[in-house]
Amino acid sequence: MGLATFKGGVHPYEGKELSENKPVQILMPKGDMVYPMSQHIGAPANPLVKKGDKVLVGQKIGEAGGFISANVICSVSGTVKAIEPRRVANGSMANSVIVENDGEYTTIEGLGADRDPAKLSKQEIRDIVKEAGIVGLGGAGFPTHVKLTPKDENAIEYILVNGAECEPYLTSDYRMMLEEPEKIVGGLKVILQLFDNAKGIIGIENNKPEAIKILKDLVKDEPRIEVCELLTKYPQGGERSLIYATTGRKVNSSMLPADAGCIVDNIDTVIAIYMAVCKTTPLMRRIVTVTGDAIADPVNFNVKIGTAFPELVEAAGGFKTEPEKLIAGGPMMGMALFDLNIPVTKTNSALLCLTRDEVAASPETPCIRCGKCVSVCPSHIVPVLMMKAALKGDCEGFEKLSGMECMECGSCTFVCPAKRPLTQAFKEMRKTVAANRRKKA
């Protein structure tokens, strides 16, 4: 039997050799900590503290502002200096709690205490995940407690753990699979407690043989869990691609994975669930890959959420050459940064520092209708025609071409010989169409 995969996709330069063999280092912050109240999809959290308040490690400083929202937890002890807008990775300003770190890391009572998940009810587990402020750590930031509360829990047949890590350069999930595999399996078992009819599948690309071996050995006696080897191809870790590759089920833009009987969680999200439920530790840290040919010592850091990005660069030995491009995330789906003075948030998986800006160095030329974009599209839509509609601002035409099925994975832009900014145009069109739909509703 061949490796599980999907139709379409691309094979960009992986760049993982820069950091894949670097064990995760704990990075202790030096400066002030910045906690944006919006580190997730949905309504921003509401600050629970005010200027001058003393705060502790593990204290909730932002409360979910609605059903689709998430709590924000303090990762240091110290004093609240201000509550004000601060820049985040996507360039926008977000209301943030600024904490002066006292360096003492005094914790709230009970933080880190062992807890037996077998003694917890399903609702207690969901409440713990909600209180812990856990969101999708693969980058989307969807509140995890919402995902774990589908309309019909008995209809969920698969819990998919996304260990593909198909985005080039990123190695944080890979390191976790090598260094903390027991927590991944423990977190998955907690999730399976919520869904009586579900089976757990850990999907890992075949360019990570060591991780596959470790996790297969760990789950060999777990009747409800298996490891699925995936073909190394981008975007194998995309939610829809992963669901199709592992279960053969198809999901479109009008569906949630739960509608296909699936729940998908990233490796680090599953570890966060384990830590919250079994170790009474809310989400306060994330694993960040600092890499690229402009960085002196590419490395994976265990970073406290709220730490400033320049501290990551300094801890990785600084820049060996002046970078032309800085990206929060990977080269395919990450966001180019115009300012490094931003905090690490729940959705930041990497800082990519490149000596050359390939996009700026490759001017756009007219489309030659070669069809490469069509052949690689994992959603099986027609980017060349969608671009035509996007350039005219034709929302109706864009929708008719199934433009809302675009995953914004960047595969079409990657293969385009004319270097057209296809993904960027589709991203803007999808935003406009979604806004128009909300107005009508």
Largest sheet: 6 strands, mixed
Strand-residue fraction? 15-25%
- Using the CA coordinates, give the radius of gyration: 21 Å
Strand order of the largest sheet: 1-14-13-17-15-16
Write down how many β-strands occur, each being a DSSP E stretch of 2 or more residues.
17
User: How far do the termini sit from each other?
Assistant: 47 Å
Would you give an account of this structure?
- α4 packs across α7 (267-279).
- The strands form four sheets. This protein has a six-stranded mixed β-sheet, sandwiched between helices. Strands 2-8-7-4 form a four-stranded antiparallel β-sheet, with no helix packed on it. A four-stranded parallel β-sheet has the order 11-10-9-12, with helices on both faces.
- The chain has 441 residues and is of the alpha/beta class.
- The longest helix is centred in the last third of the chain and has 19 residues, at 422-440.
- The chain has helices at 122-131, 144-147, 172-179, 181-194, 209-219, 239-247, 267-279, 309-315, 358-361, 372-376, 383-392, 395-400, 411-415, 422-440, and strands spanning 25-27, 33-36, 46-47, 54-55, 60-63, 72-73, 78-87, 93-101, 158-163, 199-205, 225-230, 262-266, 285-291, 299-304, 325-328, 335-336, 350-354.
- It is globular and about 65 Å long.
- β7 and β8 (93-101) form a beta hairpin.
